[in-house]
Structure formats: C-alpha cells, structure tokens
Design goal:
The chain is an all-beta fold and 122 residues long. It has strands at residues 4-7, 10-13, 18-24, 30-36, 43-49, 55-57, 65-69, 75-80, 89-97, 109-112, 116-121.
Length: 122
Amino acid sequence: QVLLQESGGGTVQAGGSLRLSCRASQYTHSTTWLRQASGKEREVVGIFYELSARTEYADSVMGRFSISQDNDRNTVYLQMNGLKPEDTAMYYCAAGLKLGGRWNDPAAYNYWGQGTQVTVSS
C-alpha cells in the first residue's frame, strides 16, 4: 500500500504557471502524473523514474510541463508552464505500475492520490 497526496492546484489565467506536488508515503520506482477533464478520458501526463530520474511526457504537454523530484525523494513535482484552457482537469499522481503495464496507460497503476483541481481561465 502506497499513499499518495497531491497539492498545489488552483485557478490561473491562460499562459500562467502552476507547480503541483505529489508526496508518497514510501519509496516508489516511479511516479506518474495523470489528468482527467470533465467528460473526457483520463490521460497520462508524464512519468518520473526514480533510479534514473528519466522522464516521459505526453505529446499534449511536451515542452510545457516537466516532472522533477525533491531532495527528500518522496515528493515529485509537476511544473506546468504555458497553461492553456484545455489543461483544465483534475490532476492525479499514481504509482505501482503493474507488471507488463505501459507508462502511458491510465489503467496500469495500482496506487492513486485523490487529485488536485487545475483550472485555466481564458
């Protein structure tokens, strides 16, 4: 059992920035950020791999979002720049990638936080 908690959501104007935080109760091999807009399918935003600090991102956020880890190793950040109205969604962090799962598959994770809302106004 891994407990995850997101924070940092809020409302910003288009073009603005936010930094979300995901704090985990224990070590995880990777931490993934996902989002789900109202009435839309869940989408993986990106993943951070602990050992290598390597990241992968969805095309929709490439060049605008970045994932990094704090020195305490239990907090992972999602830095969001150049926010667009279409980025409005509930943002989640997840861990526990299932055996054989793919990083960009929302169904591939065992552990989820409760989410933090991001709203980007026009």
